[in-house]
Design goal:
By secondary structure, the chain is α+β, with helices and mostly antiparallel strands. The chain has one domain: Cytidine Deaminase, domain 2 (3-Layer(aba) Sandwich). The protein is about 25% helix and about 20% strand. It contains three helices and six strands. The protein has a six-stranded mixed beta sheet, with helices on both faces. A hairpin with a 4-residue loop joins strand 2 and strand 3. Helix 2 packs parallel to helix 3. The longest helix is centred in the last third of the chain and has 14 residues. The chain starts with 10 loop residues before the first strand and ends in a 17-residue tail after the last strand. Bound molecules: tetrahydrodeoxyuridine (THU). Tetrahydrodeoxyuridine binds next to helix 2.
Length: about 160
């Protein structure tokens, strides 16, 4: 038996001003997008904003359905829209933010497994790391790439 360890490094910022202007604007775009979320069932609204390689920003939010599995998370709404309309543009970063049932920025947001897998596919499609910014109430997390969120993942290499 050999014991192996995977270490994940990420940055935690206690103030948004510690980020670059471009990164701050990405988070502001996610905070704008969250307002249009359709989340009447969970009352948990999520907004996502993608920084594209040409510095344009594409956003999305969660869209729920009375038949719950039909709904989409904010991340996948944004990623699929971006990939559908700009199939050749790389996604450099994603920022996500959420509002809890009281309308306050939630304390601990983290992308779900389906969104991590979708982000991984997109990162591999463009062979370029996608950074993740998680906008929590008391701090912002900067995660360098999607492998960090999904270690030992299933991907296209598993199919070969
Ligand atoms: N949700 C997202 O949109 N993104 C996440 O990262 C976590 C969860 C949505 C799905 C559902 O509409 C609501 O939040 C509650 O789970």
């Amino acid at each position: 038996m050999r014991r192996k360890t995977i270490e994940i490094g990420y940055n935690e910022y206690s103030n948004i001003n510690e980020l670059s202007e471009k990164q701050q604007n990405l988070i502001f775009a996610a905070r704008k997008a969250v307002k249009n979320a359709y989340a009447p069932y969970s009352n948990f609204k999520v907004g996502a904003a993608l920084l594209m390689e040409d510095d344009s920003v594409i956003s999305g939010n969660n869209q729920e359905n009375a038949s719950s599995p039909v709904g989409s998370c904010a991340e996948r709404t944004a990623i699929y829209w971006a990939n559908a309309n700009f199939p050749d543009k790389k996604i450099m970063a994603i920022a996500i933010t959420s509002l809890d049932t009281e309308g306050k920025i939630a304390k601990h947001l983290s992308p779900c497994g389906l969104c991590r897998q979708t982000l991984l596919e997109t990162q591999q499609r463009f062979s370029s790391p996608i950074k993740v910014f998680i906008d929590n109430r008391d701090h912002i997390l900067e995660i360098p790439n999607i492998e960090s969120l999904l270690p030992l993942s299933f991907s296209n290499t598993s199919l070969q």
